[in-house]
Amino acid sequence: MTVISIQSQVVHGHVGNNAAVFPLQARGIEVAAVPTTLLSNHPHYPSMRGGVLDAEFVRGLLIGVEERGLIDACPVLISGYLGSAEIAAVVIDFVRRAKARNPKLLYLCDPVMGDADLGFYVNEDLRALFCEGLVPLADIITPNQFELEHLTGRSPATVEGMVAAARGLSLSTVVVTGVQLQGLPADLLQTLAIEPRAAWMVATPRLSCRPAGTGDLFTALFAAALVEGRATADALGRAVSGVHAVLEETERRQSYEMALIASVERMLRPAHLFVPASIPPRADAAHLPPAHAAST
After folding, report:
1. Which residues, in sequence order, are CB contacts of 31 under 8 Å at separation 6+?
2. pLDDT given for residue 182 in this prediction
3. Other CB atoms within 10 A of residue 230 CB
């Protein structure tokens, strides 16, 4: 049983597959990591070397994945940062073939396009392929709030609006990270998981550090929990708790990169498990029960 993860690779730091592979392996899950970029580091450093890989090169790697029979026993296929519209088109073809070959496979798409404070960092053609090709193929997506707003064409200001916007995509599960809405405490970070008939929200204390790759780590931990057979709400709580544990150690060390290796024990067994609260069908942000932490 192998998770296939298609996203960026860096020489230094923890973003893309460098943030996803280790957490999955630490949970005892094999990973077939397919790179879309090969970079010296993420782009927030003063310099960066390397670049986006050629789409035909990536196509060849994915054909190799098929030839090794890895799709047949793959429970979850992850895609993250793709780098170019050409690579996105290759991934769309691969996802279609993979889902036809293995109907039980879950496609988890992290539509990496941008963030509220940085704007878009992929071009319009790639954004269009996320909206029109990749997301419609997905069973689960894990956008941040900025990306969800782009995918839905809506900018909800309440939890109820966020739930309605996510359900408009007609997917099995939409997990929205980095949520900031009216009526919610500014010192808490919200993450929502939304399904057609249920929704949950979990809050964690906002920390001062903001390293790159937290979304990639979250997606990997969420996927790992699904592979372990956990239900959506449980997977949400465990993924959020694991990320928060890594960020606490990152902040303690005042590290620019996530302290992923140093905090592996905390990530796998967080001191506090943040328990998601169920969102009522007609939820109003001001009346939601607070998410809370429970000792593990």
Report:
1. 2, 3, 4, 5, 20, 21, 24, 25
2. 80
3. 16
Read off the pLDDT band of 294 (50, 70, 90): very low
Beta bridge partners of 273: 294
pLDDT at 296: 39
pLDDT reported for residue 133: 97
**Alpha-carbon separation of residue 64 from 57, 130, 193 (angstroms):** 11, 24, 34
- pTM summary value: 0.93
Which conformational region is residue 229 in: left (phi greater than 0), alpha (psi within -120 to 50 degrees), or beta?
left
Write out the DSSP string of 218-244.
HHHHHHHHHHTT--HHHHHHHHHHHHH
Q: DSSP character for 78? A: E
Determine the Cα–Cα distance for residues 223 and 204; give it in Å rounded to an integer.
Answer: 20
Cβ-contact 135, 147 below 8 angstroms: no
Residue showing tokens 């996203």: 7
| Amino acid at position 31, single letter | V
Q: Hey, what are 22's tokens?
A: 């280790």
**Nearest-CA neighbor of 258 among 97, 23, 37?**
23
Q: Retrieve residue 180's tokens.
A: 């900031």
Please say whether the beta carbons of 22 and 31 come within 8 A. no
Joined tokens for residue 63: 């054909």
DSSP 134: I
Identify whether the C-beta of residue 263 lies closer than 8 Å to the C-beta of residue 246.
yes
pLDDT of res. 224: 98
